[in-house]
Amino acid sequence: MTTTDTPSTEDRPAAAPDTTPVLRARGLVKTYGHVVGLDGVDLDLFPGEVLAIIGDNGAGKSTLIKCLTGAEIPDQGEILLDGERVHFRRPQDARAAGIETVYQTLAVAPSLDIASNLYLGREVRRPGPLGSVLRLTDRAGMREAARRHLTDLGISTLQDVTVPVENLSGGQRQAVAVARAAAFGSKVVVLDEPTAALGVRESGQVLQLVRTLRDKGVPVIIISHNMPHVFEIADRIHVQRLGRRAATITPRSHTMTEAVALMTGAAEA
Ligand SMILES: Nc1ncnc2c1ncn2[C@@H]1O[C@H](COP(=O)(O)OP(=O)(O)OP(=O)(O)O)[C@@H](O)[C@H]1O
Ligand SMILES: [Mg+2]
């Protein structure tokens, strides 16, 4: 079995050997007091791929994606988007650059309806002075667009976009958050445990959404503890252990058992 930090061509089905990663991180360090969250992590996301991140609890998966998406600022290291160094100070900076993220702790506004949640932070104003001066939002327009987005994405569990999100099930809330990321992520979509709270059918829909995004050319980073999901959806798998990248493998190069051994340290890369 082979494990490489620099992926071979075989590991990157959609990418040529000299392809620039869409997203690249080198030597990311993040500490919280005495706790080391990240201890010099490298990550590469290539065009057109689904990259899964796996690792035990506390391995640094969420911290890694927070640093990549502006929710945390790394103490050290560099992040490149399309080969250009970026310095995200806030999640809005990453969103403006085309990176949409669904964090493990969901950020939805429970009292707002589904359509408003989809457009949170990027509300569409009414045309003319009603919008530009009075800042009135175009509710009807947003609802119509929200319905279209959800249909395009094949999400069928959310029938009525005027329902407040607080009335939805946990899985449906998750679907709203994933739909928002999928609708607006123009360069990268990042999902931290998107299927953890979902039933079988909703999980299947999220995985299908990930495939749809990849097929549209948007690479996806997905964190999951669910090995069958990871092996079903991922082109490559970043194994995170003790704040570092322990290995990069593929569903063809390794079995699930071998992947778990790398995660826990029972096997070395
Ligand atoms: N805000 C914080 N303050 C203090 N320590 C933190 C903070 N965020 C993360 N950590 C610590 O950093 C390490 C990595 O945490 P992280 O949340 O990235 O793990 P994870 O791989 O996402 O785990 P899980 O699978 O449980 O979601 C852990 O030891 C954690 O306790
Ligand atoms: Mg986590």
Could you give the topology of this structure?
Blueprint: E1 23-32, E2 35-45, E3 50-54, H1 61-68, E4 76-81, E5 84-86, H2 91-96, E6 99-102, H3 114-118, H4 129-132, H5 139-152, H6 170-184, E7 188-192, H7 200-215, E8 220-223, H8 227-233, E9 236-241, E10 244-249, H9 256-264
Parallel strand pairs: 3-8, 3-9, 6-7, 7-8
Antiparallel strand pairs: 1-2, 1-4, 4-5, 9-10
Helix pairs in contact: 6-7
The structure holds adenosine-5'-triphosphate (ATP) and magnesium ion.
Magnesium ion (MG) is lined by residues 61-62, 104.
Describe the structure.
Residues 23-267 form the ABC transporter domain. Keywords: ATP-binding, Nucleotide-binding. GO terms for molecular function: ATP binding. It comes from Myceligenerans indicum. InterPro entries: AAA+_ATPase, ABC_carbohydrate_import_ATPase, ABC_transporter-like_ATP-bd, ABC_transporter-like_CS, P-loop_NTPase. The chain has 269 residues and is of the alpha/beta class. The chain has a single domain, classed as P-loop containing nucleotide triphosphate hydrolases (Rossmann fold), CATH 3.40.50. The protein is 31% helix and 22% strand. The strands form 2 sheets. It has a 6-stranded mixed sheet with strand order 6-7-8-3-9-10, sandwiched between helices. Strands 2-1-4-5 form a 4-stranded antiparallel sheet, covered by helices on one side. A hairpin with a 2-residue loop joins strand 9 and strand 10. Helix 6 packs parallel to helix 7 (200-215). The radius of gyration is 19 Å and the shape is globular. The structure holds adenosine-5'-triphosphate and magnesium ion.
